[in-house]
Amino acid sequence: MTNNGKQRGFTLIEMMVVVAIIGVLAAVAIPTFQKYVKKSKSPEAKLNVERMYYGGKAYYEATQNFVLRASSLVPATRACAGAGLPQRHAASAWVDSPTWEALSFEMNDPFFLQYDYIGTPTSMQAIGRGDLDCDTVLSTFTHGATQVNGAFVGTPMLIVSGEE
User: Fold this and answer.
1) Quick one: which H or E segment has residue 51?
2) Who is most buried in 18, 70, 128, 152, counting CB within 10 A?
């Protein structure tokens, strides 16, 4: 558009190019952002699984036995308010028990994952499990140990995750 020899505004083609560039940037940036948000929740799981593991190790060193417990996730439900809407469990959702007390493990702050501890006479496994971005893909963090000739033998933490 011209007015006294001066051009004002943008042409339709220029606007379409800008919209296309913004679309491409959004297509790349949004999945990357979601990936980093999901990864930001992993340290909670790693820290809490290690806390359970070291609580089990301390119990073993004091008693020469593993804390015995069958599998049961605590809390019983996942922390999702819907597809893509993760929310934290309130600290009050944590159900304390003699097993958790023997491991010196409790939750005092809001948390994303469900936790479990499996203990048998010869082994233990600390587990954190959750859907970190509420896409129905579970991430599982485990750290265990076995008893070999009366000695505590730990295994490295294993992470099985939908977190590419």
Assistant:
1) helix 42-63
2) 128
Asked whether 60 and 104 are in contact (CB, 8 A), the reply is no
Q: Are 60 and 151 in contact (CB under 8 A)?
A: no
How confident is the model over 35-62, as pLDDT tens digits?
777 777 788 889 999 999 999 999 999 9
Query: If pLDDT is split at 50, 70 and 90, which confidence band does 80 have?
Result: confident
Backbone angles phi, psi at 99, to 5 degrees: -65, -50
Determine contact, residues 154/145, Cβ cutoff 8 Å.
Answer: yes
For the chain, give every domain's residue range: 2-34, 41-160
Q: Which of the 8 DSSP states describes residue 74? A: B
